[in-house]
Amino acid sequence: MTRASVRNTRHAAHLDALEHAYADILASHGYDAVLLYSGQAHTFFADDQQASFAPFGHFLHWVPQPGIQHSWLRIRPGDAPLLRFHAPKDFWHLAPEPPTAAWTHRFAIEPTPETGPPATGGGRVALLGEVEPSLARELGAELNPPALLAALDELRLRKSAYEIDRLRDANRLALAGHRAARDAFEAGGAELDIQLAYLAASRQRESDVPYQNIVGLNAHGGVLHYQHYDLEPPARQLSLLVDAGRRDAGYCADITRTWAGRDADPRFAALIEAVTQLQQSLIDAIAPGVAFPDLHRRMHEQLGELLVDQGLVCCSAAAAVERGMTRAFCPHGLGHSLGLQVHDVGGRRDAKGRYLPPPRQDPALRLTRTLETGMVVTVEPGLYGIPMLLEPLRDTSAGRDIAWDAVASLYEHGGIRIEDNVAVTETGADNLTRET
């Protein structure tokens, strides 16, 4: 079979599974049908310009058209899914064309210049998406019922073979951007130059990225969500951290790499290699039945060993964890669920929709589930020199065991994060980032 025919076959199986799952979920919650709204871009206050558009994930789960606004999908078990496709007559903008790909043959497609929903078809109906409550009242539908949303979130947590293919392709495209970013860095580019090189190589415009790319030179790599692009390169080229992704049919890649520059302290390159090895050992431990918070704790245990081995602390690895040193060097969680959203749904709830809080000492951990086959997660340990977190330790007992001269060098270099996207398989892990 050709690659395209394999993709079509897997997509058909994905839609088959969605139809059966939605029929079961709607029946178990007492609904006859559900209307899913794709969403629309928001206009800035007192302006006529709009923010970038992001479609509703549950709509996109069915319809691989991430750019369409004001469109609706009606799911009524027993009937073909009805896609009410917004196709306005417009000379200001290029009007969207109704899709014609193979998957469309199993949908009833209704192109329309109108933005309103299709008829519900009667019975008890749920309306999901960002819509006005008045519309739900007008239709006699229930707006965003929490129990139904939780059940559909749970459905998205495990990815089909088709979805894994899309995530793998998103990684392949993103990696081309990361290679170009490294080349631009080594050529002496500024942060903006590196960002533009990334976008060109990954073949996307800035409004299409799944999240704002982080391109941090030197100390900027220690700002976890650094949000700017300097126009001029720094005088010294110490380090680059790039956290940047790509979408494929709505599915997100989320990859981070760190490189040492020509003026870097030799210890920094050794730290990058150590964090990379730590990350790969954590990926090797992924398997069904492994609790992600346990992997997060293992990250801190291994960070403690790394800090000792690299001469950043002079106590035991266990003490570095117990006394809070590892969390000062890495304040974020090990990773999160990944899919149609970068921080995908269902990461902090169990299979019945009950809240699963993060550990008290790790409130930033976004994934608290036990791993299952079909889940896709990021694995992104980090090691940063963030003065705001480390300096308060200086006058404590923990501070007496920190090698402050080495830490001062880490401040200049910002920090390290190595992030891959990993699918949980029946026997372990499939690294979607390293194998593309």
Automatic annotation (TrEMBL):
It catalyses: Xaa-L-Pro dipeptide + H2O = an L-alpha-amino acid + L-proline. Its EC number is 3.4.13.9. The keyword Transport does not apply. NCBIfam families: PRK13607.1. Mn(2+) 2 binds at D243, D254, E419. This is Xaa-Pro dipeptidase. Residues 166-426 form the Peptidase M24 domain. Residues 11-152 form the Xaa-Pro dipeptidase N-terminal domain. Keywords: Dipeptidase, Hydrolase, Manganese, Metal-binding, Metalloprotease, Protease. It holds the Pfam family Peptidase_M24. It is an enzyme of class 3 (hydrolase). HAMAP family: X_Pro_dipeptid. Splits dipeptides with a prolyl residue in the C-terminal position. Mn(2+) 1 binds at D254, H336, E380, E419. The keyword Protease applies. The gene is pepQ. GO terms for molecular function: proline dipeptidase activity. PANTHER family: XAA-PRO AMINOPEPTIDASE 3 (PTHR43226), XAA-PRO DIPEPTIDASE (PTHR43226:SF8). Belongs to the peptidase M24B family. Bacterial-type prolidase subfamily. InterPro entries: Creatin/AminoP/Spt16_N, Creatinase/aminopeptidase-like, PepQ_N, Pept_M24, Peptidase_M24B_aminopep-P_CS, X-Pro_dipept-like, X_Pro_dipept. Signal peptide: none annotated. It comes from Modicisalibacter tunisiensis. Binds 2 manganese ions per subunit. Its cofactor is Mn(2+).
